[in-house]
Amino acid sequence: MGSDVRSWVKGSAIGTGAFGAVNLAWDESTGHAFAVKSVSLSSSPVASVQSLEREIQILRSLRSPYVVAYLGDDTSQEPRAGPCRNLHLEYMPGGTVAESAAKAKGRSLDEVQVRAYARCVARALRYLHDVAGVVHCDVKGRNVLLGRDRRVAKLADFGAAVRIADGSRGGDGRGWVRGTPLWMAPEVARGERPPPSSDVWSLGCTVIEMVTGAPPWPDMRTNDAAGAMLRIGYGGETPEFPARLSDIGQDFLARCFRRDASERWTAEQLLRHPFLAKEGVITGPSPRGVLDWANTEFLDDDDDDSIKERCTVSSSYDHQAEEMMDCARGRVRELASDRGAFRWCSDGWELIWCSESKEEEIGEEGTCEGRGESGDGNAVIGGAGVTAVMVVWAVSVCLEWGRVWSLDVITCCH
């Protein structure tokens, strides 16, 4: 669609943004549905128009599978509102995370869902902070939208967003206090310039919202914004952690809710936390080997784009499979190269179990029997006809947390 949309029809209202109403719309030439965020140029406050223009400028520069896509913008003449400025956005028919959490209140969203949605938001924040140079400034359940199957979540509503490189007044003259009070980080509530870590605090608040079906700080009155900001900014407190959240989830929130912004974990670090690092949803069969992944490395550019487009439609988590393919290809290159053997001595790794066999032939089922600590462990390490020399199980151990963070199986064959 893009900014060349010429003829479209506005439908019913589907929500409101920070400074504008959002309606469902249809492109008359294609029949495609999209969302349109509009402000009246004649009756809306100047701040609303400026906010929408700024949102348009920011969204034009963003491209991430975890951010609602910009499809174009225009100015239209409405029968009642007069001239309106419009932002065309990807339509997410699954509603918002806040709505899903509120409907599940009393029984809460399944923690697998909470982790999956939080993972999507953390990936959006990693992209915004590390690649795009943007702080969202209003992360909350209402601004996390769901697709039709409600498996993928995307961050929306950049009406309060600022660029990290903006000037002393946020680039729009509004100052630094922006966002929704109960989701604000302490430094934002105090009127300080919002660092990227302020979005991390808001992500923690959103996790609480998903688990409980209600905003964080339940003892604060939602109609007392000044009182809430005073307490959040200067009270020295953090939101109460939901009792039903797992120990790993509680630890995740502790990383988000450091009152000193410089001590909070980054989005990149959070994505390696056990709460987010392990996928909670599998939408397709596990690959039997590296070559089972769709291989786009040797395709033409046009073919590559078409493959990626088809993958995006076929599975809600295929964009992550792309990252896994890159990692797998890198390992294969290292194994096949003459750059030397693995560096077995590496900080943070401990040898847990090693089993050697002498020219042990692997059967048709691809299993090789060896003895672990229990004496009868099995390890699947390859296809028929592969001769195993050594299988090493290595575990990356987080000394600070005292838990296993990741498991890697390294197989040496000839």
From TrEMBL:
SUPFAM superfamilies: Protein kinase-like (PK-like) (SSF56112). Belongs to the protein kinase superfamily. One of its GO terms (molecular function) is ATP binding. The keyword Acyltransferase does not apply. ATP binds at residue 37. The keyword Kinase applies. This is Protein kinase domain-containing protein. InterPro entries: Kinase-like_dom_sf, Plant_MAPKKK, Prot_kinase_dom, Protein_kinase_ATP_BS, Ser/Thr_kinase_AS. PROSITE patterns: PROTEIN_KINASE_ATP, PROTEIN_KINASE_DOM, PROTEIN_KINASE_ST. One of its GO terms (biological process) is signal transduction. It comes from the Eukaryota.
